[in-house]
Amino acid sequence: MFARISVLGILAATTLSLPTDPSFRLDASGAVNLAIRSDETAYGLLPAPANEAPLLAISLGATRGNASLSLYTQGEQLPKPGRYPVQSWWPNQANAGRIFHACFIAGTPEHPLGAFHGESGWVTITGVQGKRIFGEFELRARGMLAADQDDEDRWVTLRGSFVADGDSTVSRIQAVSFRH
Question: What range defines the domain where residue 71 resides?
């Protein structure tokens, strides 16, 4: 009996400690070393170029702060909870499954440090509730430092988590999700 009560207490404490406000944390190591915490998160649907699928974009720190991470995945539907690979290319097969692309910009527009594109790793969607997506990521990205733009073989490892709210395109995403 005591064990059941203890387990329930631990589960309740864990649930209460989950972040509920839009926010993200990002730790970068390697070519750039940063620790970012911010409340600037959003996700939305990007219009599809001719003959291509629309993209769902999760934006972490896009307009202020010391870095930004953009996570892109194809499709009009919100991703279901699960773990998805990060790749640098879109698969040719339509049934290849969901993947994510990642673009990491270190620094600010006034003081850029570098630009990197995700090569490997994963994005885990831990939950979707209403207009909110919860997730985690761990990825390796390759790119260049602003101080040495000729060397495009610099590596950075990114780890973090996010809680992102949908932007004005969310009603379109939800309408598409409910039709299927």
Answer: 21-179
Tokens of residue 109, six digits: 């527009």
For the chain, first and last CA: distance in Å? 44
Which residue matches tokens 């995700």? 118
Which pair of structure tokens corresponds to residue 167? 């932007």
Strand partners, 59: 42, 70
In tens, the pLDDT along 73-131 reads 988 889 999 999 999 987 776 667 899 999 999 998 889 999 999 999 999 999 999 88
Task: Report CA-CA distances (Å) from 12 to 5, 18, 20, 127.
Answer: 10, 10, 15, 17
In a domain, 154, yes or no: yes
Using CA atoms, how far apart are residues 127 and 68, in angstroms rounded to an integer? 22
49: in domain: yes
pLDDT digit string, tens, across residues 20-32: 788 999 999 999 9
Q: Which of 90, 112, 111 is nearest to 99 (CA)?
A: 90
CA–CA distance from 29 to each of 16, 55, 67, 138, 160 (Å)? 30, 28, 13, 11, 12
| 98 closest CA partner among 145, 147, 58 | 58
Q: How many domains, the chain?
A: 1
